[in-house]
Amino acid sequence: MPLSSAARRWAGRALDFYDADIELIYQRCVLDCLEVPRIARLLGHRPRATRDAVMEQMRRGVVMNRTLPTASLSLLESVIEDRDRHREHFRHAHQQFSWIAVYLSLVALLVLAAVLFGPVGPLAAVLVLALFAGGLRARGGATGLYFVGCLRTGWLCLRWVIARLALGIESARWGEATRRRIEPVVWRMTRGLLGDDPDSLLVSDSFDGLRSSRSRAYRIDNAALQTLTRKLSYMDSGTVAVCGPRGAGKSTLLETTVGRADFGLLAQAPASYTPHEFLLSLSVDLCESYIRHHGHTVPPLVQLSPLKRLMHRARSRFAQLLRWAAFALPAAAAIVLGVGAAVSKSLGEHMPFFQEARRFTEERIDDAAGIWQGHAAVGTGVTIALLGMAWWRARDSEWIRDAAGGAWRAVASVAGIALIGTAVVGVGQDVWIAQHLDTAVTVGIAPIVISGLLWMLFSAAADFTPQFEIRGWEIRPRVLLGILAGLTGWAGLLYVLRAPGVQGVLASPGNALHLAAVITGVLLLQVRHWAPKPAERHLVTRCRSHLFRLQAQLSASTALTAGTPQFLTLGTSHTTSVATLPPNFPEVVQEFRDLLARIAAEFQERDESVVIAIDELDRLGTDTHVLAFLAEIKAIFGVEHVHYVLAVAEDVGAAFVRRGLPHRDVTDSSLDDIVHVQPATLEESRALLDKRAELTAPYALLTHTLAGGIPRDLIRYGRRIMDMKDKTRSGELVRIARQLILEELSETLAGFRTLLGKQQWTPGTGNVLNSFRTLVTLLREPCPCTEGELRCALQQFAFYQTGDAAAAPGHELVDEARHLIDEASAYTYFSLTLLDIFAENGLERRTRQAAQRGPDGNPERLAHARQELAVSPYSSRLLIEAIRKAWSLPMSPSNVIRWPWERACPIHPS
Length: 910
Known about the structure:
two-stranded antiparallel ribbon; mainly alpha; 36 helices; about 65% helix; 5 domains
């Protein structure tokens, strides 16, 4: 059965204590380090990195001398020498004297003396034996010398046992220190045996953070969040827009900002919403969020009749009361029946105290009656009236409620603890319990120990016993063992309670009163935090009314009919119907601003923030639609003490940045500031991936490059890397990177071919589609048999440019098709560069060499090239060419095959 880390550590200490050998302890420490997960995962993936190879390297004398702690090793060696010296002395004496028989006789003599003479007997026997041994030694006879030698041998045995215990303790301590010291050495040794690029080996299977891309547990603070937080802190109120490319983390930024606010609201702006509908939805969300924030329930959309609401509430309350009474009433009856007589007797003993309290209350009532009848001074009545007015004025003061709550908690806590302490002290001073306690302990200790051991045995067996099936029947021994454990515990408890000695302790006359004090004290401690439910806030009531105003349409009608009970009826009938109309746009704006201003003022009194975030504005289509939408809803902006945060597209952010050059638009009057969410840097991508999965630096660089620093794509490519590991059945970077890049290129070129198929083609330009088809076919199922053909096709298309007159298929190519071909060629050029960098061994060495050749050799430039592909294929091609020069990659088609393959073709084994 696999042991936990704590159990393995204690087992290692026990073995070190038992062996007490330097070489064995060292070997065990190395083996324990090889079981560490981060080291064990590296073993067995490359030929040289094996357990035996690491053990062989760690056994070398040079490594041991450099690794072992010198000071503690010297101390351990001295303890070993001390143990050996005492052991040799004992062995030499043990061969000459039969000391065990002598010591057994002495023990029997001491026991006999204790039985006959009590505790003084063994002391007297020791004194007599000491005088006897001294006399024999003084005489010098053989018997005396033999007896003294036996005593000395026993003493040497004790010295040897003490030295062995000291050695075991020091061995365990030295083994623990050695293990901590050599773990980094074993880690470095294992990585050294992996050869070049040890980080290019992907051995981790932990990617839980990549599964849940929206989980808040894996979020990190980036530069954009810090910038937005800083800008919001500089403004008391205002509107800040967050712009950036899709997938850059704008929604996550808004969710984090709203989550950190004291009161926040996140609203979505789908494309199908009109400004009026959006503000209605935003008003509803605001009311519901405020109601929930103060712990109230949101009213249902359909308002029932008063009678139905009353019946529904009464039925729910009755069900709760019935369930509570089913347990509370029998429990209360049993407690009152058990302790009622003792409590009643105790109250009778303290009757003078209650009579005094009653007399004091009657005197205060007489004083109040005298003031009412005018017998008291006029100033007293005026003072009381002023106090009443002051008390009414203080009805909304929170300090009175807080002071009363604090006083109640203090009194309940002190009284509860005092009652429990009094009961405990009373039990300790009870004479009846003291007389029967010895008998109860003697009678009950054995059943308690036995039942406790059986309960522990059954419980442990239930935890470790698996379930199984026999002829289709599912057998669960765990359930049976659990029932046996419970029955054993209850049986032991009932046996102890029915024992005569325990019954004597329970029969003490003061037990009922002590139990009542404990129950009362516990109840006081339980209810000390009770407080009356506060009245519903005025704003909560207003939000409820506003919700019904927005979501419900109410109508009322009246009718009056008059007639006679005869066949002829004369009368009139009149019906009136009144229905609430949905508010129009200006009314919605005014109501929303007024309600939000009141809510913000309430939070501002406590120096708390209010944030309203509107996401998905970039879904509205073009920048013209977004600006038109902002022009409609900007009327709700500018509420005091409220921060608005909007997520917009990059073109809207560009319009705000260009305000006044030369024209002004709605962004100038709607937005106060803007935060640009840039793609993540390599360091930020590593931090994000480190929190979500255990990816080494080369894989983080590959993911960052393919994603262009976009967080959403980082997570997607992280999942793809794990998928490529399973697909290639290898953890090597060259295999995973090659498969991933070729699959991405295949999917992208297939998409370009679909777009090109919508263009107009002629017989002279149809060869372009044929070339695309050939390249996509080769990419779909790459293998060593078509390696040369695939590389040649990729190079020809990657280095191809439609602007090159010699390579152009003809002037008949339309501009849109020509631009699509240029984009596809630039992306292929980028993918070919990634293949030349990541699908070749020695990445760490080549990365250092490229970094020495200037800024274009910085690994961050690879992500810049991916980002530039979204801007223009021509500017991105220039950047890719500079990167290839820094990495010493060929600038024209080459016949050198740089990507390693397996020896056997997996597709064509023949």
